[in-house]
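Please predict the structure of the following assembly.
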Amino acid sequence: MEVINFLFLDSFYEFFNPKKRIFIGYLFSAIVIASLWLVFIRKKNFYESLKKIFDKTVLFSKSAKSDYLLFFFNQIIMSVLSPLLITQLAIATAIFYYLHTVSWLEPGVLKNTPIILITILFTIFHFVVEDFSKYIVHRFMHKWPLLWAVHKVHHSATCLTPMTVFRTHPLEGVIFSLRGAITQAISISLFVFFFGSNVDIASILGANIFIFVFNVAGSNLRHSHIDISYWKWLERIIISPAQHQVHHSVLTRHHDKNFGVALAIWDWMFGSLHHSEKIDKLTLGIDFNQKEETHKLYNLYIDPLKEIFSIILKKIIKFLSLLKSLKFKLIGADQ
Ligand SMILES: [Zn+2]
Ligand SMILES: [Zn+2]
C-alpha cells in the first residue's frame, strides 16, 4: 500500500496543490482563457475552440506521451534525491548568522515598520528575486554546454502541453531546487534580520499572491499550442504564452530569447526579449533534423549524461595535451 501511495498518490498530489503550476484550478482557468481567446480573437465557434484546445494530435503525440512519463518518473527520482539536497533553512541560518558578524549592520533596525508594509514588501521582494533567479539560471542553461546538455531535454519537446513543464532531466530538477533554496533563504534571512520575526507573505491558498495571479492568468498556456500574445508594451513586462512558445522554436533567430518565467523585464533589460509570433508557423524542438528517438525515455535520461561525460573528457584531454606541450617547451628551454 505504501508503495502504491508513493508511486501514484504523491505524483497526482501536484494536481491538487495550489502551489504547483498544474493545480486543476489553474488548468481550468487556462482552458477558459484559451476558449475566450479562440472565440473572440481568432473568431472560432465554441465547438471549434474546444476541438483546438483538446487537439488529439498534440495531447497524444509522441512528444506529449514522453512528457507524461517524465512527470511520473521524475517525481519518484526527486522524492529520493530531495532529502539529500541542502535545505533553505540551513542556508537561511548561515546567511542570518553571517549578517550578525557584519559590524555596520544593525539587526532589527526596521522592526517598527507596520506589519502590513513588511508583508507587502516581503511578498514583492520574494516574487521578484525568485523570478530573476529563474531567468539567470535559465540563461546559463542555454549558454554553458554542460548545462545545455541537461536543459536540451526540455527543448526536445516538439509539441507543447502543460505537462511539458515537467519534461526536464532530474539534474535540472536538482539545479532548480538548489536555486529555490538559495533565493528563499536570501529573502527570508534578509527580512528577518532587518524587520524581526514579523515577516509574513501575502498568499492565496498557500501560494504567493503574485504566483497565484500568474497561474490563474493562464501560465499553463505557455506550454500549449494556443498562441496567446499580448500588446507589445505588455510583452516587455510580462511574458505572454506565445513568447515562451518562441523560446521553443528551432529557428536560429529565436535561439536564446525569452528566458523569463513570469516577468519579461529581465529579457528586455539584458537584450534577450523577442515579441510573440504565430505558433502555426513555428517548428518546435531542438532543430529541424530532430530524431524520433529523442522522445524515448532512455534517450531523455541517458543522452545528457553521455554528453556531459564527453564534454568533460574532451576538456581533460585538452588540458593534458596542454600540459604535455608545456613540458616539452620547458625541457627545450633547459637544453
Ligand atoms: Zn530554455
Ligand atoms: Zn518551456
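The chain has 14 helices and two strands. The pocket of zinc ion (ligand 1) is lined by residues 138, 142, 151, 154-155, 247 (CB under 6 Å).
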